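Form 7-S
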Amino acid sequence: DDPAKNIVDTDIAIVIQKVERIDSELLVSFAIEHYKPNARPVKCVEGTAVLTAQPQAKPLKKHNRQPLEENGYPCTMPEAYDKYLFHGPKLRGINKVRSCNKHGLAANVEDMGHALVNHPQDKPITNPLFLDCALQSGLLWSGAECGLCSLPMFGGRYRQYVDKFPAKAQILLYPKEVGESQMCGDVFVVDEEGRVLAEWQDVRWVMSSTLAKSFRSNKL
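Output:
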């Protein structure tokens, strides 16, 4: 099929590359491409989604990582969004950073009810705001711990254990590789009792002192 048939915005298309059935699961290889007039499409994201009719009914488990000491954040959240992030009001889902140190970051997130995906006929299988806040956690951590702004550049395996997120949750970031210009870590979405709702492994961010100017001038 023509990839243009899958366009969900004026210049963004979701392209299904391959569908494979293994037992009761569907493995869907996909790409998100950016289209420009009179130019070849640019592949922005590529991955494989594992789909099942119903998730296996298993009790939620608590995460087994080191608890993070609650020491707050060096500045208020409005100041943090202005200094280390570039998100508008609808994406400011982190309302409090409870902990930020060399071991990681813990933050409270809340669904503010804004429709980020305007497709009322579809039932979303995840919460885009919470996933964006998971990526935002890396920007906040690199800003406070490394003094550098950052941007996500890669996401490894994502697994979700519930069919719907609660209105409030916590984001836990555990960095495991930190260099001069990159960092890599695992991010958990947990409920108020510490049970894992979703986990995103091997997320990578690129860090650079030049990003701060772009953030402030909103030129990304």
